[in-house]
Amino acid sequence: MSTLLLPPSPVRKTSPMTSSYAALSKQVKDEGLLGRKLGFYIIKFVITIIALMATIGSTFLIGNSWYQLIPAAILGVIFTQIAFMAHEASHRQIFTSGKLNDRAGLVLANFFVGLSYGWWMNKHSKHHANPNLEGKDPDIAIRALAFTPDQAKGKKGISAFVTKRQGYLFFPLLTLTGLDLMVSSIGTIFGKGQLKNRLMENVLFIGRFTIYLTLLFFFLNPFIALAFLGVQLAIFGVYMGGSFAPNHKGMPVLPSGTKLDFLRKQVLTSRNIYGGKFMDNLMGGLNYQIEHHLFPSMARPHLKRTQEIVKEYCAKENIPYLETSLPKSYKIIVAYLNDVGLAARDPFECPMISQMRRRD
Question: Do 112 and 208 form a contact (C-beta atoms < 8 A)?
């Protein structure tokens, strides 16, 4: 009789939500959508490197001219495309071997793009584990922006000034993303914290900037060289930030301690961007953010078919699934950031009046 007085089993209590993702995962796996597509990445890499070599070659043909800002902007786009592949390597999407993915990621990130692969891995893994969860997701704990009223209220000085207008300043701030990523990488690579493959990161990172800056300042006068570097970093920052921001920014921010099952946690905090093959290439597969979060190691070519399965499954489970256009996502982000920024404004200013001003 005593067994009847025992509390319900924790496994049984959570199994309906756990089995929900398990059933979805089984369906995806049964269709072979978790397999690798190495040929896709080889072709993608070769095409990108050809574009990179052609752009570098054009800089020698142009010579010491302000027209160099054109290839500088193109390099910003190419480096972002390479960063997408480094991101995929960090998720084990390219090779079946973890070591091969890490080696590819190190070369792509540190040598080609100029970012620390180890720093990115650490930061991005935390984001995937707890997207939009206060106190856990580093992507909503950045210096430049506030994503909750409490964060906005805590801003002081210049940060408070920016936060009050952060929605309108969103795109201008993106131009600094490339510089911020580089500074964070330098702090990690040359810092004292734990970093796997530190020697290799140092060699690749230092080698990259030694070659890049030597060529830049040897063939161009200092003013054009600095402008070249500034434009490349600005375009890279806008492209990178503009590709990652639509995925979660403006989606629900979960209070610390929120408990959700894996399926709902990933779907409810993520947003997809539609736009066909053009958008697939433009955003490096990040436009399928929901599917990417549900199946992080899935190769990019499988995401489209997986989306069809996930959308149908979410509809059956009554789980909201958000997909919108890229311009609409930016509109949502700007409005959300401005609303949050209200908390950093004059406490004697009526929020209702502010909202009415925005409508006017």
Answer: yes
Residue 246: Cβ within 10 Å count: 26
Kindly list the domain boundaries of the chain, sorted by start residue. 21-345
Cα dihedral angle (24, 26, 32, 33), rounded to 10 degrees?
A: 30
Q: Say how many Å lie between the first and final Cα of the chain, rounded.
A: 70
At residue 17, the pLDDT reads 54
User: Quick count: other Cβ atoms within 10 Å of Cβ 102?
Assistant: 20
Location of structure tokens 């509809």: 315
Looking at residue 156, its pLDDT comes to 85
Q: What angle do CA 235, 240, 243 make, to 5 degrees?
A: 120
Angle at 235 between CA 171 and CA 136, to 5 degrees: 60
**Pair 134, 254: CB distance under 8 Å:** yes
Backbone angles phi, psi at 359, to 5 degrees: -70, -35
Q: Give the angle 27-29-35 at the CA atoms, nearest 5°.
A: 150
Structure tokens at 242: 């503009």
- Give the mean pLDDT per block of 10 residues along the chain (360 residues): 35 52 96 97 98 97 97 98 98 96 97 96 95 94 88 87 92 95 94 91 97 96 97 98 96 92 96 96 97 98 98 96 97 95 63 44
Beta-sheet pairing, 323-324 with 272-273: parallel
DSSP 104-127: HHHIIIIIII---HHHHHHHHHHH
Q: Name the residue among 336, 332, 334 with its Cα closest to residue 172.
A: 334
Give the pLDDT confidence score for residue 1 in this predicted structure.
34
Q: Give residue 276's pLDDT.
A: 94
Proportion of the chain in helix, strand, coil states, percent, rounded to 5 = 70, 0, 30
Contact 240, 83 (CB under 8 A): yes
Separation CA 100–CA 52 (nearest Å): 23
